[in-house]
From TrEMBL:
Domain of life of the source: Bacteria
Any Pfam family hit: Aldedh
PANTHER family referenced in this protein's UniProt entry, alphabetically: ALDEHYDE DEHYDROGENASE
Keywords attached to this entry: Oxidoreductase
Classification of source organism: Bacteria, Bacillati, Bacillota, Bacilli, Bacillales
Gene3D superfamilies given in the database record: Aldehyde Dehydrogenase, Chain A, domain 1 (3.40.605.10), Aldehyde Dehydrogenase, Chain A, domain 2 (3.40.309.10)
UniProt GO MF annotations: lactaldehyde dehydrogenase (NAD+) activity
Residue ranges of every copy of the Aldehyde dehydrogenase domain listed in the record: 9-266
Keyword Oxidoreductase: yes
InterPro entries referenced in this protein's UniProt entry, alphabetically: Ald_DH/histidinol_DH, Ald_DH_C, Ald_DH_N, Aldehyde_DH_dom, ALDH-related_metabolic_enz
Record-given protein name: Aldehyde dehydrogenase family protein
Family of the protein in this entry: Belongs to the aldehyde dehydrogenase family.
Coiled-coil features, chain-numbered ranges: none
Amino acid sequence: MGNGVRRRSESLISNDLVKKITFTGSGKVGKLIKEKAGLKKVTLELGSNSGLIIEPDVPIEKIISRCVEGAFSYAGQVCISLQRIYVHESIYKEFCNRFIEVTESLNIGDLLSESTDISAMIREKELDRIHSWIEEAVKMGARIGTGGQRKEYAYQPTVMLDVTQDMNIVCQETFAPIVSIVPYTELEEAINFVNDSSFGLNVGIYTADINNAFYAAKKLESGGVIINDIPTFRLDHMPYGGVKESGYGREGIKYAVQEMTELKFVTIKTTF
């Protein structure tokens, strides 16, 4: 943020005529806004590294394309882009093979072409950043299932395997066409993997067991839990927002209006 932009932003934040501040962006800037906002209402929609749990009772062939879509739409440059997939060990190998197969069928090209699935990232320095994160993960023991290379101003849709929770591509927000797939043994382990994050915006779980679905919904630390769909799913009327480093407050038509409304209670006594 340049000095001129910073000064103008600070003048808006501190101006008494501004009663409410809503911000979408990085956690670093969000925290600075909160520090300067004082008692003003603030809604912060910050980072995420959305996770998805896939239980062994789910028909893989029916969800693969949807999972690929969640990971790579808009080149992964979405706050709730699917970044981490935790797959039960009994179906892990099959899921990885199918996921990689569909990923490799995606077309990289001109954003204006109807045949294009993946296009340019927002800035060239983001290509450098994410490539360095992948190289770092590989040095730490991760394996590239597919992708992992620049293609002009785009980045190949990339699947990472053998990752650990401390790698940047897992614990930070990639905001790029990269997804990590990790096996788990028990549902509780998968829930702990998802919760082992400083973020908590949207998460998802695929399961045919309604009891497991509600158990996960209760235990998962996030603003939204999407059952039997990807965490990238969002409709405008949903209460959208996160916990932890993902911010606080809620967007969505009804909830945004509520966040921007001062509640005044009036009581009337009809007799003296």
